[in-house]
Amino acid sequence: MKNEFLLAVTQLAAERNLPKEVVFKAVEQALQSTYRKDSFLGKHDFTVTIVPTSGDIKFYARKTVVESVNDPFREISLDEARRIKEDAELGEVITLEINNPPGAGRIVAQTAKQIVIQRLREAEQEFISGEFASREGEILSGVVSRIEPRQIVVDLGKVEGILPPAEQVRTEHYRVGQRLRFYLLEVNQTNKGPQLILSRTHPNLVRRLFELEIPEISNGAVEIKGIARDPGSRSKVAVAERQEGVDPVGSCIGLRGVRIQNIVNELQGEKIDVIRWHPDPRVFVANALSPARVSRVEPDLEEGSALV
User: Fold this and answer.
1) In degrees rounded to 5, what are phi and psi of residue 11?
2) Inter-axis angle of helices 113-133 and 20-35, nearest 10
3) Which of helix, strand or coil describes residue 285?
4) Same domain, yes or no, for 79 and 16?
5) What is the pLDDT of residues 75-111, one digit of tens each?
6) Nearest to 207 by CA among 188, 183, 191
7) Residue 79: inside a domain
8) Fewer CB within 10 Å, N or C, the chain?
9) Contacts for 214-220 with beta carbons within 8 Å, 24 or more apart?
């Protein structure tokens, strides 16, 4: 029975892409919830622990050290406590193992399946929330699994993500089975569990793609100073060197345009202009309008605009 139990836990962990420790914890909580209804164990302040190596189920009762015992299920005398722990003091909580509690085997066999499933679902949601909450602002690779009237559902492996209409590029045509990269906009907590909101329109999608494709950006030799994007049409990316002798624009474009073409392909043909940043707004605006020849730039710094 123990081997079967361990095998079942291992299988559950694999099916749900969860660490075995998370599954053990969920099953322990389910068992503890069930044991509280038992006429004997329910009188104790107890915990349930599963030994991962053997599958043994251990029961531990917490008892408070008192001078006079009124509730033997939750209290223990000082003399008895000191036989277990020499330096025990009044008011201290002692943990004792409950050996072979009556009805334990019966309860294990009858543990409600739906409680275990519910605990596993909660553990799965907590695990996903913890894993993806720290990844907001990153790029995730996924496959379009369903196209619904109000959203597109994306399979991200362990969990599904949502691509709302506002985050879809109007010129892109999505199809089931299509693999794309998405920007993880936010992780929302809902009654049904964590909901991952994805984006294909966010300017930082372009930033993350540049960081992935261009080593000079990922190692800090080139810095992205700003991005302006009209999703599906054109993006302009301003770059500057942080290391002497590095050509920031050439590094982003790559030999024969290979690097920038990889990003263009991921964005399904969106045009990308890479511009050399300059601290003088006149020079910077002129660079941004290249190959047009600019004769004069009159910047209005308060309005954030320029007359060219």
Assistant:
1) -65, -45
2) 140
3) helix
4) yes
5) 888 888 888 888 888 888 888 888 766 655 555 545 5
6) 183
7) yes
8) N
9) 214/251, 214/252, 214/254, 214/259, 216/246, 216/248, 216/251, 216/252, 217/251, 217/252
Asked if 172 contacts 232 with a C-beta cutoff of 8 angstroms, the reply is: yes
Same domain, 118 and 21: yes
Helix or strand or coil: residue 156? coil
Q: Give the range of the structural domain holding residue 19, as residue numbers without chain letter.
A: 2-130
Report helix, strand and coil shares of the chain as percent, to nearest 5: 35, 30, 35
Tokens (6 digits) for 76: 């223990």
CATH code at position 235: 3.30.300.20
SS3 68: coil
Cα(94)–Cα(78) distance, integer angstroms: 10
Q: Is 265 helix (H, G, I), strand (E, B) or coil?
A: helix
Q: How far is it, in rounded angstroms, from Cα 301 to Cα 308? A: 14
Peptide bond into 291 cis (omega under 30): yes
Q: Running DSSP on this structure, what letter comes out for residue 37?
A: T
How far apart CA 127 and CA 137 sit, in angstroms, is: 19
> Any idea which residue has 């053997």 for tokens?
54
The span from the CA of 127 to the CA of 106, in Å, is 31
DSSP class of residue 164 equals: -
Could you report the per-residue pLDDT of 151-210, keeping only the tens digit for each? Answer: 999 998 878 899 999 999 999 999 999 999 999 999 887 777 778 999 999 999 999 999
C-alpha to C-alpha distance for 137 and 185, rounded to whole angstroms: 6
